[in-house]
Write a structure and sequence with these properties.
215 residues; mainly alpha; Arc Repressor Mutant, subunit A; 2 domains; 63% helix; 0% strand; elongated
Length: 215
């Protein structure tokens, strides 16, 4: 592999490390992993971010290998056609296209609201969302509910869609009405009659005896 692309999303994750030295070590380890196949030897915080990036990085490597194989086949074919011409180039740079299409602003917003980094599977899920007021409102609701999974956010967005809620104002009215109905809901026992039962003669006599003992 001759080259690979560093995306803005990669740097967003790397710069979450507070120490510049740790950032530089992680970036260098990524380069060695991509170009030479060397497994990184990093501290826990660095490895946490590397593991989040490993899936798209591996995807890049596999795509690069495929392109390299195709290039070799093309070169071999040209070689057969031009056996007397040895001036063709055998070295070709490979442009790697990593399928991580996360809106940078939304990506940063979610990490800030949830106070954590995101996994590769979560990045792919976020890629299916639009960066608008409704999505950000759903993220804020997720954080307020202290939910740990973005699947919770996905269910919120699906609810908005199923209810035909298309604006933030409509959503806020719906949620306000929902909370008011929930807070005003009576317990199942609320409307039931409470019947008074009198003690039997035997029970009443026992009570009277206990009262006499305390006089």
């Amino acid at each position: 592999m001759n080259s690979f692309t560093i995306y803005v999303e990669y740097m967003d994750l790397i710069t979450l490390l507070p120490k510049k030295r740790d950032q530089e070590e992680l970036l260098f380890a990524i380069c060695k992993y991509m170009l030479y196949g060397e497994e990184p030897n990093l501290n826990d915080d660095q490895m946490k971010i590397f593991k989040n990036l490993k899936r798209p990085l591996d995807k890049s490597k596999n795509k690069s290998k495929l392109k390299s194989k195709q290039n070799q086949n093309e070169i071999k074919s040209k070689s057969n056609e031009n056996q007397n011409n040895n001036n063709f180039e055998t070295h070709q740079d490979v442009d790697v296209d990593v399928n991580v299409y996360v809106n940078n602003n939304l990506f940063n917003y979610i990490q800030k609201e949830l106070n954590r980094t995101l996994s590769s599977s979560e990045i792919e899920l976020i890629n299916t969302w639009e960066d608008n007021d409704i999505t950000r409102h759903a993220i804020k609701e997720t954080a307020l509910a202290r939910a740990t999974s973005l699947k919770y956010t996905e269910r919120i967005l699906e609810t908005y869609k199923s209810k035909g809620l298309k604006t933030l104002a409509e959503i806020e009215r719906y949620e306000k009405d929902f909370r008011e109905k929930k807070s005003n809901k009576k317990p199942t026992w609320f409307d039931k009659d409470i019947k008074e039962e009198s003690a039997s003669n035997e029970e009443q006599e026992e009570l009277n005896e206990l009262l006499r003992e305390f006089k």
